[in-house]
Amino acid sequence: MSSLWADNFVAPGCGGSQEHSFQHPFLQAVGMFLGEFSCLAAFYLLRCRAARHPDTSADPQQPFNPLLFLPPALCDMTGTSIMYVALNMTSASSFQMLRGAVIIFTGLFSVAFLGRRLALSQWLGILATIAGLVVVGLADLLSKHDSQHKLSEVITGDLLIIMAQIIVSIQMVLEEKFVYKHNVHPLRAVGTEGLFGFVILSLLLIPMYYIPAGSFSGNPRGTLEDALDAFCQVGRQPLIALALLGNISSIAFFNFAGISVTKELSATTRMVLDSLRTVVIWALSLALGWEAFHPLQILGFLILLAGTALYNGLHRPLLARLSRGRPPAEEGERERLLGGSRTAINNAS
User: Fold this and answer.
1) Does residue 272 carry a pLDDT above 50?
2) Residue 21: beta bridge partners?
3) How far is it, in rounded angstroms, from Cα 340 to Cα 158?
4) DSSP conformation class of 288
5) Quick one: DSSP state of residue 63?
6) Domain boundaries, the chain
7) For residue 258, what pLDDT is reported?
8) Given this model, what pLDDT does residue 7 score?
9) N or C: which end of the chain has fewer CB within 10 A?
10) Are 243 and 227 in contact (CB under 8 A)?
11) Where would you find the membrane-spanning parts of this chain (predicted)?
């Protein structure tokens, strides 16, 4: 959300250039990796604390090669940079909703490369997610577009977001196949990937300063990224610096809190909280007048939420409660009907 605020600020750049929007996606991606990198500092602080109060029940950390994190970090860097470019072209709510496409590609790649077998509910979740993406895309096509977001830019932005989710899915598969088997602490994993991404993307800002980008550029020079222009805008508009600092802090807190929620509660709880983040961003964007309301977005969001819930197994506790509340007579009839094939069912499973 802080990165969205930065995009809506205007300030003059270097050399007395006219005021223009702060559209520096790759510099913002560097800030995101800086936030992830800070998780590494949090990991070492926690390890120092654990050294003073040793916990024998904790799993010992296995030695590993940090270069294992380089391929996922490259995927993270590419996907994040594409998403920040897309954020300048489409609305924040569509950006958040279309990120749900990661379920589709992660499920398909896990079947293809990890040999995983998806349950029926997960396939239904993927189909529901595809339907939700279609509805959100229709909402973008039918919405009124201002001079800042033309229809062609919105379509391009939506396609870039979906393309980025393919790269993010590859990152998740790589992490599961090569990283998680080493029992690396999640904060250490996020922080190491952040270190690689921060260093590599910071170095890439130098050639990006000279590469022409045409309509994809948001700076007066028309290049892929103009970090000097960004720093000049930050110096002349302190609110941009505040928004960037908020982006870095929120990334660090989101990763730390997400890991804590998954550890203490469940991954399903984290998914629900992440969905609430989409609602908050959507509500604030509407309240601040940054985008127009379209009823199809509500339908698309609900379908995406249902797909995510099915894929993550959120329906199982509900079905378990319903089965426990079944009348005894009906349960007995069901047992008699299934009694003859019970052995075959158990053998098949």
Assistant:
1) yes
2) 10
3) 52
4) T
5) P
6) 1-6+25-52+65-320
7) 60
8) 54
9) C
10) no
11) 26-46, 67-86, 98-116, 123-142, 154-174, 194-211, 239-259, 271-290, 296-314
